[in-house]
Fold this protein.
Amino acid sequence: MDATPSQVSLLFTSYFLVTAVAMLVTGWVSSRIGGKRTLLAGLALVMVFAALAGTSTSVAELVGFRAGWGLGNALFVATALAVIVGAAGGGAESAIILYEAALGLGISAGPLVGALLGDWNWRAPFFGAATLMAVGFVLIVTLLKAPARPAVPTRLSAPIRALAHGGLSTTAFTALFYNFAFFTILAFTPFILHMSPYGIGAVFFGWGVCVALASVFGAPPLRRRIGSVNVLHLSLALLAVLQTGIALSGHAGIVVFTVLSGIPIGLGNTVFTESAMEVSDAPRPVA
């Protein structure tokens, strides 16, 4: 569609803006209809809007369908981790590590699959995403035992009230800036790589593998050895250094620093999530 970088960026902005706002009410929804139904509702919305995105005839339509996709994402993501933690037998830390590892592997495989499908037709990655969501829907219907609903339904104001806790509010606002850096790499770096979809897919495959490995094998031992706060200091400092490297480097340096930035992002994802879950007594979906 010959979209400009600003228009392409809107595909991220519309998606995550809706996700962010909708996440404020997902705890309220899941506490009333249950975690399993909330996950299924989220997957169904993503499936529908991903398929609609594949039928777009303009950039504006695509941006709008991505916003609907973001609503489904909010219902799924905010609930999925809480459900995984409740269902896993190894405790919250192991469940979070598995969740972040799956996130990293998905992020790494996605650009490669997207390049393969997109090389055939630009609409194909959207239909591919809808198909994967349908598979996830069937798996949750058949394999996931519905978790128990909380004895007291979550109030709509719960997320705002939870920010009164100093540790949770500090974690949340730091995560705001951290995610700004995270998605600067994910959403903007492809424009400066000047590579084919396969080249960009390969770079972000390496990046995603680093995210997954750091999440599973780096964050847990570091957290036990030096503590969560120091791991976050290390992650944020390393991410700042690597992003500065991207800004000052030539093409080869951009590729290397982009791939390596997956290491602090893997550490940060896991420890930010664990900290948000554990720092206060707020219910997990709210936290």
About this structure: The mean pLDDT is 88. The two ends are 39 Å apart (CA to CA). DSSP finds eleven helices and no strands in the chain.
